[in-house]
Amino acid sequence: MRKRAMLLALALSLLSGCTPAEPKPPLRAEHAWVRAADSSGTTAGYLTLVNDSDHDVAMVGAETALAREVQMHETLHDGALSRMQQTTRLVVPAHGKLEFAPGGNHLMIMGLARTLEPGTRAGLALRIEDGRLVTMDAEVRR
Amino acid sequence: MRRAGWLTGMALFAAIAGCGGGRYEGTPVESALSAPGTRLAGAPDTISLSNTGGKLTLLTFGFTECPDICPTTLSDWRRVREHLGADTSRVRFVFVSVDHRRDTPASAAAFARQFDPTFIGVAPDSAQLKTLLPYFDAEAVYTPAKDGHGLEVGHTTHSYLIDAKGRISLMYTFATEPEPIVRDIHRMVEAEPAR
């Protein structure tokens, strides 16, 4: 009986070891902002991801309650011709940064649930490959 | 004699400078074609680029589902307009949708108005775009989206300044700061006073 209890305790401790060793994501989002838009529209979110860890970290998606869908996109330039394309994986290098900025990587926010007024805030999150989320409270700007 | 030579040199330099070499900060459009008179439908405005009403026109191409490039350009234009002072009334700002499958005159107009109530949005049909784009040496490409839904629209991202006579005169690359555009508009207005 006692042996079983010890085994259970051991199993529990092992199980708890299976929960993420680092509950806090190894990344932080800086200068997050979203461009103001009508509720009918599509808009974009921008930020800088900073990776202070010793490992590359891959971003695999984005989440928001603001809209029907948010995707990671990159804008590709071919001379004066530009087009954007969805991307499902972007890597933030160890001790490095990844920029989401106008004319480059951006979060494409589609099917807005409400008008985004300048001066308000908008919640966004980026999903890391291991499932954790980097959350941010983005400023809505014109 | 020596002095006369110096004066001649100065006069020559002034004449060359006055001929437009380096007078503007935007890139001169070599062909400088007159914009075609195609009627471009917006809501409520239907405009013609050749019928300028004595105004300059700042023009760009895009589409209303464009989340990054087009809103960035139109936001930059808002800053241009804010800095124009008395010359504000001498410029019309025209967003031309190249997404003839999805955009309508009403959606193009509403998109442009989000950035400034005076901005004009128009949605030419496919035939009109075929006529219009080559005048600007501009392109629009349409490819099915990777996920199988929707369409990816690629387009030339420049802004163009059309003079009061309707000539496509200057070009600015994406993300040009507003200041050089503002200075060029002032110079062009000065060179072509209101009739």
Topology:
The complex is a heterodimer of chains A (142) and B (195).
Chain A: H1 2-18, E1 27-35, E2 43-51, E3 57-63, E4 67-78, E5 81-86, E6 90-92, E7 97-100, E8 106-112, E9 121-128, E10 133-141
Parallel strand pairs in A: 1-10
Antiparallel strand pairs in A: 1-2, 2-7, 2-8, 3-6, 3-9, 4-5, 4-8, 9-10
Chain B: H1 2-18, E1 27-28, E2 39-41, E3 46-48, E4 56-62, H2 69-82, E5 91-97, H3 105-113, E6 120-122, H4 126-135, E7 140-144, E8 151-156, E9 159-162, E10 168-172, H5 178-191
Parallel strand pairs in B: 4-5, 5-6
Antiparallel strand pairs in B: 1-10, 2-3, 4-9, 7-8, 9-10
Could you explain how this protein is built, in words?
The complex is a heterodimer of chains A (142) and B (195). By secondary structure, chain A is mainly beta. Chain A contains one helix and ten strands. Chain A has one helix at residues 2-18; strands at 27-35, 43-51, 57-63, 67-78, 81-86, 90-92, 97-100, 106-112, 121-128, 133-141. In chain A, strands 1, 2, 3, 4, 5, 6, 7, 8, 9 and 10 form a ten-stranded mixed sheet that branches. In chain A, strand 9 and strand 10 (133-141) form a beta hairpin. Chain A is globular. The N and C termini of chain A lie far apart (67 Å). Residues 12-20 of chain A have low confidence and may be disordered. The longest helix of chain B is centred in the N-terminal third of the chain and has 17 residues, at 2-18. Chain B is built from five helices and ten strands, in the order H-E-E-E-E-H-E-H-E-H-E-E-E-E-H. Chain B is globular and about 50 Å long. Chain B is of the alpha+beta class and 195 residues long. Residues 6-21 of chain B have low confidence and may be disordered. The chains are: A mainly beta (142), B alpha+beta (195). Chains A and B meet through strand 4, strand 5 and strand 8 of A and helix 2 and strand 8 of B. Strand 5 of chain A pairs antiparallel with strand 8 of chain B, so a sheet runs across the interface.
